[in-house]
User: Which sequence fits this backbone?
């Protein structure tokens, strides 16, 4: 049944987006913290919200969580407007803020119980919800532990558990990996993946650190100074960046590895000398059996270079470009603007 307040206009062939920001604006005086931000995320998707500090991530997320209201525009959670239907939005959304209070006199299970009660869960339903969260976050063994004695990694799991307690469709996580050690970060990443794959949640996760998001996100929106600079699947963003680089004739880095049964030093020297004589080859760095160099050509020229390399008799066993990571794309898309 379609309930009142449901925006049929949101529907396209994929159904209703789990999350949609539509021309969202939030100004603080003259500061345009969020300046016409639009994007969508679909059920079961993990979407990265990536941008430097001060870009407008927290402000956008707080509006999604109905803790703040937009200056203009709107945002929808499972089709419900944060402006018109904040109560419905809260039912469908779990928000993990970037920092949250840790009550000194509570243990893990009491903390979850407190939030379960706040969401109106009763008796068996509440017990089941708490049990489910304890199992999912692997905090079962720590149920009686005072929460102010938890490690950072454990308290982030608890924070995640807390916003799962009412089984929301959409999870909005504001920099959940900040300050975690590498192991805790990997564990958190796995939990977030499970949320999407097993529990079919839609996850919006923000970060100013790119590497931690590239591997878990299906899609990403890159924001800077309140505006979206790139939006799409991770592959699309990377590909677009590669196309831009090709258009701008930005040098790409190429790697060659050679193997010679004897005289590898000689073969490396010969390769270096040969490379330096080729058109479009910039800086060359060689070490035994390897060369890394800048190449200013596109795909066609790169193919020709490889052919020439083989024709010239270099014993090539590897020839590859350095593929752009999401981080490279981010560095090249954002300009370092602060307001
Ligand atoms: N309540 C507020 N009053 C005034 N300025 C704010 C307020 N909240 C955020 N800002 C400003 O809005 C901009 C975006 O902040 P924020 O959304 O927290 O960025 P991010 O989470 O991407 O680091 C920043 O310049 C910040 O100083
Ligand atoms: Mg923030």
Assistant:
């Amino acid at each position: 049944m379609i309930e009142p307040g449901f925006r049929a206009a949101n529907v396209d062939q994929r159904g209703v987006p789990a999350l949609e920001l539509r021309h969202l604006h939030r100004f603080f005086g003259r500061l345009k913290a969020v300046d016409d931000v639009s994007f969508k995320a679909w059920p079961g998707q993990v979407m990265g919200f990536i941008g430097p500090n001060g870009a407008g991530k927290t402000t956008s997320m707080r509006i999604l969580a109905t803790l703040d209201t937009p200056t203009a525009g709107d945002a929808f959670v499972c089709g419900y407007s944060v402006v018109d239907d904040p109560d419905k939005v809260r039912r469908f959304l779990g928000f993990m803020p970037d920092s949250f209070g840790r009550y000194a006199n509570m243990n893990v299970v009491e903390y979850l119980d407190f939030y379960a009660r706040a969401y109106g869960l009763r008796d068996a339903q509440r017990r089941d919800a708490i049990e489910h969260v304890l199992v999912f976050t692997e905090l079962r063994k720590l149920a009686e532990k005072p929460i102010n004695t938890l490690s950072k990694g454990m308290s982030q799991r608890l924070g995640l558990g807390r916003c799962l307690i009412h089984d929301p469709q959409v999870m909005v996580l504001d920099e959940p990996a900040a300050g975690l050690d590498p192991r805790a970060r990997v564990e958190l990443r796995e939990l977030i993946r499970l949320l999407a794959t097993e529990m079919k949640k839609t996850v919006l996760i923000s970060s100013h650190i790119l590497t931690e998001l590239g591997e878990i996100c299906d899609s990403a929106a890159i924001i800077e100074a309140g505006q979206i600079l790139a939006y799409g699947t991770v592959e699309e963003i990377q590909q677009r960046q590669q196309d831009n680089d090709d258009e701008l004739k930005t040098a790409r880095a190429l790697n060659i590895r050679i193997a010679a049964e004897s005289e590898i030093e000689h073969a490396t020297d010969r390769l270096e000398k040969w490379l330096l004589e080729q058109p479009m080859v910039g800086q060359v760095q060689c070490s035994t059996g390897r060369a890394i160099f800048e190449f200013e050509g596109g795909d066609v020229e790169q193919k020709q270079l490889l052919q020439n390399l083989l024709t010239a008799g270099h014993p090539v066993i590897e020839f590859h470009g350095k593929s752009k990571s999401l981080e490279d794309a981010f560095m090249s898309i954002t300009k370092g603007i602060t307001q």
